Structures are given as structure tokens and as C-alpha cells.
Amino acid sequence: MTSTPSQAPARPVVELRRYRLQRDAREMLIDLFDREFLETQEAAGMSVLAQFRDLDDPDAFVWLRRFEDLPQRAEALRSFYTGPVWAQHAGAANGTMVNSDNVLMLTPLGDAAAPSLLGPGPLPRRFGAHRPSPAADLGDAGVFEMTTCYLAPRTDMAFAAWFEDTICPVLQAAGARIEGRWMVDHRENNFQRLPVREGETLFIWLLRFDGDEQQQAFHRKLAASAVWREQVQPEICRRTWRENEVVRLAPTRRSLLR
Fold first, then answer.
1. How are the residues of the chain apportioned to helix, strand and coil, as percentages rounded to the nearest 5?
2. Rounded to the nearest 10 degrees, what angle do helices 84-95 and 26-36 cross at?
3. Coil/strand/helix, residue 95
4. Residue 258 has what pLDDT?
5. 73 vs 12: CA distance, rounded Å
6. First CA to last CA distance, the chain
7. Interval 130-163: pLDDT, tens
8. Helix or strand or coil: residue 166?
């Protein structure tokens, strides 16, 4: 039987949001965000997965949130951004920002049968119950590294398959834990009040390390890998139209991903 649009399976949507902030305003936004915008967004129907400081840019804030499908995204966003919490705190939040429009709608990739915060399958049950409290002292939350590849149009599916077959084993052999990978969701933004970047073909992956030393050891091993130097890097250059963007990230105290 041929599927109709109404019968098409639901597909999760992840927003990657990167904000340019006023000078010295990041800690103010993080305090407000972690105090007021976590449980309240989740009550509106979305899942806030992670909040990060950019380790190389003191005026950048990065976060991820997930929706179970596109219609649910519009409903959840409308509920939150017309609700009392945003009305009360919007001025303070927006006052910390220079620009908040660096936003991508993404499709999560990976094993749909393995529950994961950043994977395409259903979220693990009671995922929000594991969010640290504001007073929790959990020690070092680790270091994350996000890589964005800028691809030619309509080449993302081929790149994703090549990533799984070739790049993943090399990254893992060098000591990285692959937390997530995404392609751009090319469906129309169905909540126009919040702009998103459109018309781009990207592939993004996120690595996790226990700390700076492990991350540095990973890069030494990667640089020493003949497969990486002689096969992977030249092929990435062939498939991309600009240099990969790599950012180092540190989770905030109440980030679920840490």
C-alpha cells in the first residue's frame, strides 16, 4: 500500500540553537535559562537536551531541544512562547543577546532501536528525571566537540552513509564517544515567529570526552592515523565546499547531556 502524507511516520526534529550574546552576558543568560526555561519548556511539550558554553567564545551560548514530530513542534512552541513564563522573562533573556537566529532544524541519525537522548528513536523513559538540580555538584561534566560539514546540495544521505561506514570507526578507535549526528531537516519551518537557517546541506556530529586531556589524546591519535590522514581527510575535503567548523563545548550545570 502506498503511504499518504497523513500516514507517513513521525520524524523527530532537533533544533540546534547558537546565540551571539552581549559582552559578559553569558552567565546571566545561563542562570536565567537553567532556572526558568527547562522544566517549563518540557511542560509545554518539548525536550531540552543540552545547554553549553562555547569554550573558545565567551559570548556564545549553544543549546539543543527536541520535538517528536513537526506538528508537535509548532504546538509546543506556540504554547511556550505565548505562555506566562516567557512573557515574564523574555525581556531579560533577549536583553543578553546580540543575535538569536543562528538556528538549524535537524534530523537525528543513528540506531533508532537504541534509546538515546540524541538518536532518532523514542527518548528513554523518565529522561527528565535525571536532570541535575540547581544545587547539584557533579564535578567535571566533560568536554564536547561539535563538527559541522558544509556539503553540496542533495549529498547529505550519501555523506551520512559514508560517515557510519568509514568515519565512525576511525573516531572511535582514536578514543572518541560519538553522542549524536544530524542532517538538516529540509521541511518548512512551521513556527515562523522563530527564524531558522534554510537552504543549507549540512552534516553535524558531536563527540564527548571525559576532559581536556582525553580530547587532546584523541586528536594526537587522529593525527597519527594513516587512514585519517590519507583517506578520510582528503575525502572530506572533496565532499565539502568549505573547511569544517569545529567548536568545543562545556555543559552547564543543569544540562541533561553531560
1. 35, 25, 35
2. 170
3. helix
4. 84
5. 9
6. 44
7. 787 776 666 677 999 999 999 999 999 999 999 9
8. helix
Q: Distance between CA atoms of 190 and 209, rounded to whole angstroms?
A: 35
C-alpha to C-alpha distance for 40 and 38, rounded to whole angstroms:
5
Residue type, 33: F
Do the beta carbons of residue 208 and residue 258 sit within 8 Å? no
- CB proximity list for 177: less than 8 A, separation 6 or greater: 207, 208, 209
Indicate if the pLDDT at residue 232 is higher than 50. yes
Question: Alpha-carbon distance 222 to 48, whole Å?
Answer: 32
Closest-CA residue to 246 (of 210, 213, 218):
218
Q: How many CB atoms lie within 10 A of CB 81?
A: 16
176-226 pLDDT, tens per residue? 999 999 999 999 999 999 999 999 999 999 999 999 999 999 999 999 999
Q: How far is C-alpha 148 from the geometric centre of its chain's CA atoms?
A: 11
Q: Beta 13-21 vs 60-67: how paired, if at all?
A: antiparallel
Give yes or no for a contact between 199 and 219, defined as CB atoms under 8 angstroms apart.
no
Task: Please choose, from the candidates 121, 120, 118, the residue with its C-alpha nearest in 3D space to the C-alpha of residue 64.
Answer: 118
> What residues does 246 pair with on adjacent strands?
147
Whose cell is 520535538? That residue is: 67
pLDDT at 111: 86
Which one-letter DSSP state was computed for residue 152?
-
The answer to whether 119 touches 209, Cβ cutoff 8 Å, is no
Instruction: Please report which helix (H) or strand (E) contains residue 237, including its range.
Output: helix 233-239
Give the bridge partners for 222, in sequence order: none
| 141 vs 95, higher pLDDT | 95
Residue indicated by cell numbers 517549563: 40
Only one residue has cell 511556550, namely 80
